[in-house]
Structure formats: structure tokens, C-alpha cells
Design goal:
Length: about 130
């Protein structure tokens, strides 16, 4: 009797352990942490982008349009990819005093790397001529 209960306990233990080995659901806390980290990166880009030399006579306003964070389950060294999307408005004053406004969008792509526990900027792919 003792042998069968030991085998039964072992089978149950293996079944429970095997259930944990299936596809892993994204860790909500990890997603929130890397998203907050990407938001900090967006804040730095905004701050630096709006910091222009007054001699240039250009005023820039960077607005975060969105943050995209995507899990990369098959890459343990770079488990997340991210993108920061901005709408940028620049205003310059013409020689006649008229304000000229330009608006455009920019996207910055990142990978979260475990080697530095942070986001690294991804250079855009070069377009062939």
C-alpha cells in the first residue's frame, strides 16, 4: 500500500509540474514595468527635442501619440520590443513676422535587453535607393 501511495504522489507531482511548463502567459507586472521604463524614455526624448537654441527661432512641441510594447516570447535576451510615437509641431517666425507651423510624426523603435536591463534604440532599416 505504501508503494502505491508514493507512486501516486509522484504522478500527481509530475502532472502539476508539467502543467506549469506549457505556454507562459505574459507577466502583467513585467509589462507594466517595461512600459513605465519606455514612458521615461519618451519623456527624455520629449524634453531633449523641445530644448532648442533660442537663436534658431524655432519652437518645437513634442506630443506622445502612443507607446507600443510587444512581448517577444522566443527571445530571452530581448523579451520586449517597443515603439514611441510622437507628433511634433514646430513653429518658426518668417522675416515678415508671420509664424510658419509644420507638423509631422516620428517613431522611435526600441528593444528591451536583459544585458543592460533597459531599452536600446534600434536604428531604422536603410532604404535601398
Amino acid at each position: 500500500m505504501r508503494m502505491s501511495s508514493t507512486i501516486g504522489a509522484a504522478v500527481i507531482s509530475l502532472a502539476l509540474a508539467g502543467a506549469g511548463c506549457g505556454p507562459k502567459a505574459p507577466d502583467k507586472a513585467a509589462r507594466e514595468a517595461v512600459t513605465a521604463s519606455l514612458q521615461q524614455e519618451a519623456d527624455l526624448l520629449k524634453r531633449d527635442g523641445e530644448k532648442l537654441d533660442p537663436v534658431l527661432g524655432v519652437k518645437a512641441t513634442w506630443t506622445v501619440e502612443g507607446l507600443d510594447v510587444v512581448e517577444r516570447p522566443n527571445d530571452p535576451d530581448r523579451p520586449w520590443s517597443g515603439a514611441i510615437r510622437f507628433k511634433i509641431k514646430s513653429e518658426t517666425q518668417d522675416t515678415d513676422g508671420k509664424v510658419v507651423t509644420d507638423e509631422f510624426e516620428r517613431r522611435f523603435d526600441y528593444l528591451y535587453t536583459t544585458a543592460v536591463n533597459g531599452w536600446i534604440f534600434q536604428m531604422p532599416d536603410a532604404k535601398a535607393p
